[in-house]
TrEMBL record:
This is J domain-containing protein. GO terms for molecular function: Hsp70 protein binding. SUPFAM superfamilies: Chaperone J-domain. It comes from Eremothecium cymbalariae (strain CBS 270.75 / DBVPG 7215 / KCTC 17166 / NRRL Y-17582). InterPro entries: DnaJ_domain (IPR001623), DnaJ_subfamily_B/C (IPR051100), J_dom_sf (IPR036869). Pfam families: DnaJ. Residues 13-84 form the J domain.
Length: 270
């Protein structure tokens, strides 16, 4: 029985090895021992290492012998047929899942080398998820995350990025529609992307817009409430970079080593 278990574990179609077509459950019971012997003789003669010049003749011959050894033994054949029937004519959903898995595996093997930039984005997103886990924050819809290509040439990208809270609806979930709304309101944006933590069941979701320069950023931040086309979709806008980081309490004296390097007189920043 060891040979039949090895055949099952290796997912080998023994009937294919003997070139016997099995298209239904009934075909399994209709294969006679004389048919097995006939096919075995033909296939063994064709792929015998002493007569065949095929590069895989040795391997093919061993599989043919394995197929005959298993299928010519009544107990082994019964065990194999039980597995074969479930594997090829069993649950439709399970067979479909197995087929899709094999297709994905085949596609994965044929893929070219992964783009380093794509790998970097995945790594950065993984770091982001670990931070959320550490601070016990909700992940959002992390299963359907989409990495968008962004223009990294913007020298003041973070300073010119605004976090926009949008009311949840079909319009605000459409990136192209939102771009057109901002353009119609005379707030053209360089880039925009949705937060990976957005969840459609929430009342609001977040969109980040990257403006051309600081003037355009300030314009949108201060004047969006005057645009009726935007007011109905937006709940609030704030800078992506927390401005509190740039507020200092009291006075701070520059370190002498810094003053020496920049070559300026001692002064105090308020």
């Amino acid at each position: 029985m060891a040979t039949v278990e090895r055949s099952i574990d290796s997912d080998i179609n023994l009937y294919d090895e003997l070139q016997i077509a099995i298209l239904s459950k009934e075909d399994l019971n209709n294969v006679s021992i004389s048919q097995l012997r006939k096919q075995y003789r033909q296939m063994a003669l064709k792929y015998h290492p002493d007569k065949s010049t095929a590069p895989n003749a040795q391997e093919k011959f061993l599989k043919i012998k394995l197929a005959f050894d298993v299928l010519s033994d009544s107990d082994s054949r019964k065990r194999y047929n039980q597995w074969f029937q479930k594997r090829h004519f069993g649950d439709e959903h399970r067979r479909l899942q197995i087929k899709r898995l094999k297709q994905r595996e085949a596609q994965q093997k044929s893929l070219d080398i992964v783009d380093p930039s794509e790998l970097q984005r995945i790594q950065e997103y993984g770091q982001h998820l670990r931070k959320l886990l550490h601070f016990k924050q909700p992940y959002g819809d992390w299963k359907n995350v989409h990495f968008e290509s962004r223009d990294t040439r913007h020298t003041l990208r973070e300073s010119c990025t605004l976090r926009i809270a949008l009311k949840q609806n079909a319009t605000t979930r459409n990136k192209q529609t939102m771009k057109q709304l901002f353009k119609d309101a005379n707030f053209p944006v360089v880039d925009m992307f949705f937060s990976s933590r957005n969840v459609e069941t929430d009342d609001e979701h977040v969109l980040y817009t990257v403006m051309h320069d600081l003037a355009a950023t300030t314009d949108l931040l201060n004047n969006w409430t005057e645009k009726d086309t935007l007011k109905s979709y937006i709940s609030g806008i704030r800078p992506y970079v927390n401005v509190e980081y740039f507020h200092f309490e009291g006075t701070v004296k520059l370190d002498s080593s810094i003053m020496d390097k920049v070559g300026i007189d001692p002064q105090v920043i308020v």
